C-alpha cells in the first residue's frame, strides 16, 4: 500500500460568502496529521523504526505502521490473494504463509478496522461525516475525513491462530487510543 491522499485536492478549506453581489472566498490550510510515537507495551519487546513499531512475545509478532494518508488497503501488504472477513474489530485481511498465520487491518481514529479501500471509505463516511466533526472542519481545525491509519499486522504460528480472537481486539483498542486526536 502506498501512502496516498485519497483526494487530489490539497488539504485546504475553502469558504465562500456573497456580500453586495460579490463572491468573497477564504482558503485556509488544514493542519497536517501529527507524527506518532507509540509507547512500550508491558510484556512485549519493542523494536522501533521511523513510523513502524514491532512488538514480540515468543513467536508472536505484532507490527504497527503509521500511514498519515492511507487508502485503507492493508491486505495488499500481505498478499494480493489474501482473504477478508469481519471480526469484532471490523474487517481483517489474512493469509497463511509457510507455518505462519498473518492478519492485518487498518486501525482508524474512529470506527472499525478496514483491510480494503471500499471498507475504509465506508468507515470514513460513517464515522467522520458527523455534525461534531463538521464544525471543526468549517473552522479549519482538521480535514473533514481523517485518513490516518495505523496498520496492525499480527504474525503467529498457524497452531496458535485461535489467539487472534483475543489479540486483535486488545491491539486494536490500544492502537486506536494512540491515534486519538
Notes on the structure:
This protein has one domain. The longest helix has 16 residues, at 164-179. It has helices at 117-128, 131-138, 164-179, and strands at 12-19, 22-29, 45-49, 52-57, 60-67, 83-87, 90-97, 100-107, 149-157. With 181 residues, it is an alpha+beta fold. The strands form two sheets. A seven-stranded antiparallel beta sheet has the order 3-4-5-9-8-7-6, covered by helices on one side. Strands 1-2 form a two-stranded antiparallel sheet.
CA radius of gyration is: 19 Å
Tally of strands: 9
- Walk across the major sheet and give the strand order: 3-4-5-9-8-7-6
- DSSP strand content: 35-45%
* Unreliable segments of 5+ consecutive residues: 1-31
Helix content: 10-25%
**Run of helices and strands:** EEEEEEEEHHEH
How far apart lie the N and C ends?
24 Å
Count of alpha/pi helices:
3
The geometry reads as: globular
Domains, number: 1
| Mean pLDDT reading | 77
Biggest β-sheet strands, sense, barrel: 7 strands, antiparallel
SS-based class:
alpha+beta
Notable characteristics:
disordered N terminus, alpha+beta, 181 residues, 3 helices
What's this model, at a glance?
The chain is 20% helix and 36% strand.
Amino acid at each position: 500500500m502506498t501512502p496516498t491522499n485519497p483526494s487530489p485536492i490539497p488539504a485546504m478549506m475553502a469558504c465562500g460568502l456573497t456580500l453586495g453581489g460579490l463572491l468573497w472566498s477564504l482558503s485556509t490550510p488544514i493542519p497536517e496529521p501529527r507524527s506518532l510515537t507509540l509507547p512500550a507495551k508491558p510484556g512485549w519487546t519493542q523494536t522501533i523504526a521511523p513510523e513502524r513499531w514491532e512488538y514480540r512475545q515468543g513467536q508472536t509478532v505484532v507490527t504497527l505502521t503509521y500511514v498519515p494518508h492511507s487508502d485503507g488497503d492493508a491486505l495488499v501488504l500481505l498478499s494480493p490473494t489474501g482473504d477478508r472477513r469481519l471480526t469484532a474489530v471490523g474487517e481483517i485481511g489474512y493469509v497463511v504463509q509457510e507455518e505462519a498465520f498473518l492478519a492485518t487491518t487498518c486501525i482508524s481514529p474512529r470506527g472499525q478496522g478496514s483491510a480494503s479501500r471500499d471498507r475504509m471509505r465506508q468507515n470514513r463516511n460513517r464515522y467522520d461525516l458527523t455534525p461534531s466533526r463538521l464544525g471543526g472542519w468549517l473552522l479549519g481545525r482538521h480535514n473533514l475525513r481523517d485518513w490516518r491509519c495505523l496498520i496492525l499486522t499480527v504474525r503467529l504460528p498457524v497452531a496458535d491462530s485461535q489467539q487472534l480472537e483475543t489479540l486483535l481486539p486488545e491491539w486494536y483498542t490500544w492502537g486506536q487510543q494512540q491515534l486519538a486526536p
